[in-house]
Amino acid sequence: MEDAIATIVTALGSGAAAAAQETASQAIKDGYANLKGMLKERFADSPTAQTVLTEYETKPDVYDVPMRHTLAEHGLGEDASVIEAATNMFRLLKEAGVSAAASGNQSFAIGAVGPGTRGLRCE
Fold first, then answer.
1. Core-most of 7, 46, 69, 104, by most CB within 10 Å?
2. Per the structure, how many domains does the chain have?
């Protein structure tokens, strides 16, 4: 579950940064809006979680730990739809030649993650 949380947090931060650029493609903007929209939906019953999401967008270094905690608290590390949206954000960034920034000592690989699987691997 922690790998999935790290994937979501990094996709959210990288997507926000990329989507804010004037040169961002519409696909990147849409991918980011989709991921953020899913999280807003999942946080609809929690004003605190909504605040963390809003603040993370502009201060990812400050809100990294609260975002991770909020995602875990809401069970989003096991939410296939959210994980898929995060994975899609990484794919869009890769296609655009944009590198995903990871926080902490983590790195991400896009592609095969194990026998018969595809997606992201967090190390």
1. 7
2. 1
Owning domain of residue 21: 2-122
Tokens 């990147």 appear where?
28
Query: What's the angle, vertex CA 13, arms to CA 81 and CA 84, rounded to 5?
Result: 15
Q: Are 16 and 63 in contact (CB under 8 A)?
A: no
Rounded-to-integer distance, Cα 113 and Cα 7, Å: 13
Closest-CA residue to 70 (of 103, 46, 89, 87):
46
- Spell out the per-residue pLDDT of the chain, length 123, in tens: 679 999 999 999 999 999 998 889 999 999 999 999 999 999 999 999 999 999 998 899 999 999 999 999 999 999 999 999 999 999 999 888 877 665 443 444 443 333 443 344 444
Tell me the C-alpha distance between 57 and 21, whole Å: 14
Alpha-carbon dihedral angle through residues 24, 118, 72, 107, given to the nearest 10 degrees: -70
